[in-house]
Amino acid sequence: MLDFHLAELYQVETKNLNLSVKRNIERFPLDFMFQLSQGEWENLRFQFATSNWGGRRYLPYAFTELGATMLSAVLKSDVAIEKSILIVRAFVTVRQLILNPPKDTVKELQNEVRELKEYIEDVFTDYNDINEDTRLQLEQINLTLAEMQGQNRLFNKPPRHRIGFFTEEQRKNNEDIF
Predict the structure, then answer these.
(1) What distance in Å separates the CA atoms of residue 153 and residue 156, rounded to the nearest whole number?
(2) What are 33's strand-pairing partners?
(3) How far apart are CA 133 and CA 129, in angstroms?
(4) Of 16 and 152, which is predicted with more confidence?
(5) Distance between alpha carbon 94 and the CA centroid of its chain, in Å?
(6) Which residues are 61's β-sheet partners?
(7) Beta strand ranges found along 1-142 (DSSP E)
(8) For residues 29 and 1, is the Cβ–Cβ distance under 8 A?
């Protein structure tokens, strides 16, 4: 964050914030803060859409997460302490989001639905295969039973005697008497 952003956040003037930092410069090593180069500032000023004239006589300071946190030790106001706590929480939250990005529950549900759909299609394919196999087996069983019933009628038919009156001719010709 830039010095004027932090000054606004801590509700102090940028000049006073930078004076406090200079009085305690041993608390702000290079990984806590650094001063922007002219090229970096020109690029940022273009992005902020500020004018070339007026405003600053010196290049702004950029503070890292650690430097923004250290400002609470340098700035002793209640507002500075309160804002520092909020800044630390914000940096911790951002770090956690970077390390553990939130799960895309919609994408997870879409994947689960796709997997379930594929599974159900496989189950129905297997079910249809079983039904077709079972139908063929039942047809063969029915054919075999029909053949066996036909064979029983022809070969295992017990002899039956005809009942009734027979003529002499029928007995001589042995026509289906029995």
Answers:
(1) 6
(2) 63
(3) 6
(4) 16
(5) 21
(6) 35
(7) 33-35, 61-63
(8) no
SS3 6: helix
What is the spatial distance between Cα 38 and Cα 41, in angstroms, rounded to a whole number? 5
Confidence of residue 148 (pLDDT cuts 50, 70, 90): confident
Burial of 3 (0-12, 13-18, 19+ CB in 10 A): buried
Asked if residue 41 lies in contact with residue 59, where contact means CB atoms within 8 angstroms, the answer is yes
d(Cα 84, Cα 78) in Å, to the nearest integer? 10
Dist CA 142 CA 131 (whole Å) = 16
Q: What is the DSSP string of 104-165?
A: -HHHHHHHHHHHHHHHHHHHHHHHHHHHHHHHHHHHHHHHHHHHHHHHHHHHSPPP-PPPS-
- Among all chains, which residue has been given the structure tokens 């702000």? 28
Which of 60, 70, 61 lies closest to 91 in space, CA to CA?
70
pLDDT digits (tens, 9 = 90+) for 154-170: 566 666 666 777 777 77
Residue with the two structure tokens 């990005």: 101
The encoded tokens of residue 144 equal 């075999």
Render pLDDT for 43-90 as a digit per residue (tens, 0 to 9). Answer: 877 665 555 545 677 889 999 888 888 887 788 778 887 887 887 788
Could you give phi then psi for residue 52, rounded to 5 degrees? -75, -25
